[in-house]
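Researcher: We're teaching a course module on how sequence relates to structure. For the next exercise, students receive a sequence and then see the predicted structure as C-alpha cells, so they can try to spot secondary structure elements on their own. Here is the exercise chain.
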Amino acid sequence: MGDTASCDVTMNGLPDVLPPTVDRAALQTRIFSSQCSTSDQELLALRALWNSRQPINKLPMELLVDVLMNLPTNPGAEGTEKPTNSAQWHKAMAVCRHWRAVVVSTPSFWRTINTGQLSRWLGLALSRTGQANLCLMFRSTPVLVQALPLLVPQRHRIERLEFTCSTASAVGKLGPLISVPLPSMEEFTMCGQEGPPSLDPSDAEIFDFQPENFPALVKLKLTRVNLSWTGTLPSRLRTLDLRGCSIRPSSSSFDALLGTLRSGHNLEELTLHDFMSATCSSLDPPSDQVRISCTLVTLPRLRKLEVSDAPSWIAQFLSHVNLPTQGKVSLTGLFDVADLDGSSLSHSCLLPQNPDVLTFLRLATGATLIMMDNLYGIACTTPAPLSVSFLLRARSPRALWMQRLDAGLKHFTTLLRAAPLSVLDVQCDLARVASEVLDAALDAFPLLRSLGIASSVFGPDPFPTRLCGSLCTHAPLGEGAAEGTDAEKRAAHGRVRCPALETLRLHRVRWEDGAFVGALAECLREREQRDAPRLGRLEISTSRSAEVDWRDVDTRISGILAPMVDVYEFSQIAW
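Model: And here is the predicted structure for the students to work with:
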C-alpha cells in the first residue's frame, strides 16, 4: 500500500524482468522517498506496481470487499439501525488505486444513499449501483421532489425508502414514486409535517396506502400522516410503527382496528402512538366480561409492543389484545388539562377493570415503582423474559396532577401482591409515605433479596428513616400462627421484614450532616440480633457539596457501616 516502509525491505514485489543492471535498492528508495502527489509517470507506475504486490491486495476481490464493507462507521453513526454512507470505506478509496477501483466498481458500496440538502451525491451514487437494490433516505422534501426524474425509472429497485414531507402538498407530488407498485420495497418510512394532522381532510393530502403495491414490505413506519387505509396488513409485515397518524376521510371503529391487527400474524414489533384515539370513532363501554365474551387478538411472534394514548384507550387495548409472553412492552397513558376537569384520574385507569387477567402481574420477579408529580410508573420483569412498563404522565406541564404517594404505593402493592418479587426499586420521596403503608408494602413481598430506594427527580429527598424502622422490626404473625406452639409463636415474632434481603441500595439521599448513618447502623444491628442474614451489599449515594473535603467523614462512616456488611460502597453527587 502507500504506507512508508524501511529501505531494507526486499523488492520481491517487483517483477524479475527488470534488467540486471537496475539498482534495486535505489529503485526502492525512490518509491518510498516521497508520498506526495507527483506527475512523474514512471514513479506512479512503480508505486502502483509495488502496491499491487502487497499481501492484502493478493486477497480475492470478494474477501477484500467483505473487509471494506465491515469497516466501522464514523463515531456519530455508531450503533444506529439506519443505513449510513459515513462508513470508513470512503477513506479507503484514498489508500491506493486498487482499493479505489474495487470500491468504485462494487455496487454494494453505493446502494445506500443518504442525501442532504443537495442531490448531486444521488446522481453519482446511482450511476455506480448497477442493478443492486437501493436504500434511499431524504431529509429534504424539495430535494426528493427534484430527484423524482432520477428515481422513478429505478423504483423497481428501491428496497428501503425513508423521507420527510415538510408540506402536506408534497404527498401528491410524490405519487409517481410512492403510489405505484414497488416490488422490491421492504422498508417504508414516511414522516409528515410537524404538528398534529389537520382536522379537516380537505386541508391536507392523504397518503393512499395500498398493501398490494408493497408485496415484499416487512417494515412500515409512518409519523403524522393522514392515512387512507382499509383492509388487512401486508402478510409479510414484521414491524408496524404508527405515530400521530389518522385514518381519513372517515374514522374507523375499534372492531375494525382489531380486525386489521388480527391479520398481523408475522408482526414482531408494534408501535401505536396516539393512533387509537385519532382513528377510532368511539370508545367501547368497559365490561368485566369483555375478555371472556370476545376472541382476543393474539400476535404469536410479537416481541416488542409500544402503545401511548389516552388512559382509557390503553385500558381498552388491554381488554382486547393479549400481551406477548416474551420481549418488551411499554404502555403509556397521556393526560392533559381537559382530562383533569371533573374526572377521577387514578393509578388504575390504564388497566382493565379486572387486572387479574394480566398474567405477568402474578409472574413478576422484579418491579420498579416511580411516583412523582404528574408521573406514575410501574415496570415489571418476569423470567420468560418479559419486561412490561405502565406509565401515567402529563402531556404538558400545564396538566398538574398532584398524586398521593400513599395511594400510589397501596395500588402497587395490591396489583403485585401475588407476584414472587425478589427485586424491588422505588423512586419517590419515601419520607412522605405513611409508616403503615410502607410496612404493608414490605410485608406483601417477603421474598425480596434486593431493595433500592431513590429520590425523585426533584430530590435529593430526606433520608427515609421510616424504612430503617420498618426493616428492623418484626413482620406480623402469619395466618394460622395463633394455632402454633409457643416456640413457633416466638420464632414468628422474632422475624424481621424482608428476611431474605441481601442488597440494599439508597441513591441520591439528602446529606443532612450524615444523620442517617446512625439510623442505618441501628437498623443493621437490630436485624442481626433478630437472626436476619448478614447484608451482602450496601450502596449509598448522597448529594452534598463538592467544595468540602469529606474524606475524614467518609472514613468514619465506613468504619461504622463496612464491618456490618460484606460489600460497602459510598459515593457522593455534587450539588
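Model: If you want an answer key for the exercise: DSSP finds 22 helices and 20 strands in the chain. The radius of gyration is 33 Å.
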